[in-house]
Known about the structure:
The complex is a heterodimer of chains A (about 600) and B (about 400). Chain A has about 600 residues and is α/β, with parallel strands linked by helices.
Amino acid sequence: MIVLGCVDVRVDFGVTVALDGVSLSWEQPGAIHAVVGQNGAGKTTLCRVIAGLTRAERGEVIVEGTEHPATAQGRRRKGVELVHQTFALPPQFTVAEALQLFRPGTARGGMFRRGAMERRWAGQLEELGFTVSPKALIRDLAPEQQQAVEITRALSSGSRVIVLDEPTAVLPPEAITGLFERLRALAAQGITFLVVMHKLRQVRELADTVAVLAGGKVVLPPTPMQTIDDEEIARLIMGGATEQAVTGASAVAMGLADAPEGLAGVAVPNGRQHAGGPASASASASASASASASASAAAAAAAADAAMSPLDNSRPAAHGAVEARDLPGSPRSEPAPAVLRVVDVSVSSIEGRRGLRSFSVDVRPGEIVGIAGVEGNGQQALVDVVVGLLAPRDGRVEIGGREASGLRIAARRRLGLRYIPADRQSRAVSLSSSLWVNAMAAPVSSGYGVSGSVRRGFLSERKLRKRGEERLERWQVRYAGSDQAMRELSGGNLQRVVLAREVDDDARLIVAEHPTQGLDLGGTGLVWEALRRARDHQVGVLLVSSDLDELFALSDRIVVILDGERVDELRPPYDRATLGHAMVVGAAS
Amino acid sequence: MSWRNGLGSAGRSGVALLVGLALAAITFQAGGFSAGGTASGVVTGAVTGSGSLALTLRYALPLAFIAIGVVVSFRGGFFNAGAQGQFYAGGIVSLYVGLTLPTSLGGPIVAFLAVLAGAVAGMVWSVVPGMLRVYFNVNEVIGTLMFSFIAEYLVTYIAVGPLKSSAGAGQVAVTSSVPAAVRVTPASGISAGVVLGVLLVGAAVWWLLRRTRFGFEIALIGRNPIMAEVQGVETRQIGLATFAVTGFTAGLGGAIEILGPLGSISSGYDPNIGLTAILVALVGVLAVGGVLVAALVFGGLTAASLYLPIATGLPSTSLVFLTGLVSFVVTAKVGWGRWPHGLLRRARGGPDRHRDDELPVPGGTRPAGEEPPPPAPATSPGPVETSV
């Protein structure tokens, strides 16, 4: 009998296909089955389809031998329960109330007796070996206790199949062992678990079988753990790009090879000439007039040149080394003093954000250092510590050779720190403010690059606006008027405004956090070129990304972060398998 | 702000005001009072009656002082709801200084010092809850309102205590009166100096908002505090400064009221001016010019409320009802752009809605967070369309 499975399930979200003809079956009851894969591989969608929370375009779901159409309008499927990644318990409820919610029993005619309810659930919790008081409020519980309540709730429905979506993501390490023991005990009683996990080490420790999803497809059907090794799983997770080593140079070529069609979409003819908006701009002749179907890598470079040319002109003699500097990927003669030094920084973990453990990384001028890791392994804390949004518990941060631990964000920015945040709408831009305000926000607030337009706190709106427009035009932002609200811009155009503010002449260190997330190929190409150009002008770049192609294409070296620790450092030529292994298991050697 | 946007918001504000008045008229009619009579009563009481315009201006002046400062806080997204208390603090301290300093220093000098002291007192009364807000994250509405209650009891204390005079009658105690030489206006409540003062404060705040880094940063915080911080804005200091400005002008309002038409404070003094000033700021679309106009409108309504009982038999408290309705409509206006949208989204988001964080959704896989709504309770300074 198939205890759990699905047949030819397809799920589309708009134009993206989340699951593409996925067929999987697990036959062994009372076992723990793992599903692994990269972000976006479709794991969570699979869980939701199985639990009946997401409607599939086509396909069937099998639970304990019974077939159900997966296309039914979202309704919880009987016999299988999903424990969410982020818990869905009402925080102001007591444990007993949360468990009782939507469950039959105790309540008679809409009335219930608190005492009876609490006794009922106290018994259940105890039976499962959870030490949680039914009287406690959900919001006062530790993550592992909330998870215990969720699991109790799932089991109390009489379901024999439980789906856990990344159950370890929110747990501290010590709680993970406890969870694993409990799951194994329950499995021994005949409960079947389907578990989505990121870390291979944990899969190895917990699961009986493993299946791999990549790009919405099954690349490994459920396979007993004994018959497959970590290397093989990591290789499959990373998209099977296998042994073929990706060198820095060929990755660059790869990035540029992608660029043409994208650039055709974004490369606007020279923005400096336009006044009335895109219509008049398109009339002007410029390098990107050729950005038609035949646009090439040369066009990409030309567009980027146009974008960064002011940098070329204005870079003072002190940076004369620019020309002499070697191309990325080639050996460097002597290491310049670091523009960023993160030394033994520790940050406590809080709910929803992994901390850092004695983490160190240096970024030298003219160098892009990639930070690779599975999401949620401390990247956020690292960025926040460098930018100045978070004070480390221990360790120190130096920017441009100056101790920066005690410096506020404005002071760090004056030292040349720039920040391209991942969360654009909340951190990077103010959607209701105008374009020029967005472009000038950091210069005005932190006090740099505004000479002539701000004097002793008094500003000339006219001059400031003009400076803002200069920045916007340098980056070929398409706009009708610079007092347009930011929210009117598209994603790629919006990121150009961010680049216009953050990649400027005074930049010394750029922290780029998932800078191309959600951008199309053209936007991605522009961001890549911007970061490469910045590097060529002796700016140091700290690049946090979960896009391995991006890391390979840009990074001079890649530091791997796992669970808040620096576990490895890789140099070109890069190799997906090695990096994948380091990201999920730790150091290769 | 582009002037077109400004006109748009002002237009909507005007419409809201008219709708509020119309609703009030309907209610009055239903209650057995003539709506037409009420309308003409309002016009007579506020504009055309003899001495009406002077009365309108007399009530508009303190409202304008307070509301101009409230604009600063609201633009920064801080819902400083304690203007009433800051007004009291300004009144009490200016009275104390006005009574204590010897008039031999020269009336105008004493008056100036007293007004200044009042303004500083209002500032202190605002900055303390401001500090609770920025350093301890105490909700500023609670903090500033609590301080208003304290100030209210201080009014009674000062009237029955240290400055008590023999003038009180029955249950009402009254302080000594400020000598005429120290007054900033005659009993009419209007003087060139005070009118000039409002215009100066208005100009100063306009300039502050439009021509200084401080104003630029206030707008950034008000629109997206997280983004502002990332840009290097010292959000705490700036936030605290907005509290200071609001308190300062509210204190000024209290000082000119007490050193002007009133001359003394009686126990139980409660002009209910703080909340009206917040309304003035909102109806005035958080712009200095708009606030000056709105202050005249609400000053007129106050003046009319004195006349209405005579003309139509409406109780004077009907004005409270009227302003209540207007505030209701003005804040509902804020909702036009927001509510239906939010409701629609919620209605669509059935169980099939993906909470999926690993979908390659175009436009970014992170939650497309709207900018955080301004921290406002019932009446929100919300998306009034202003810009630097």
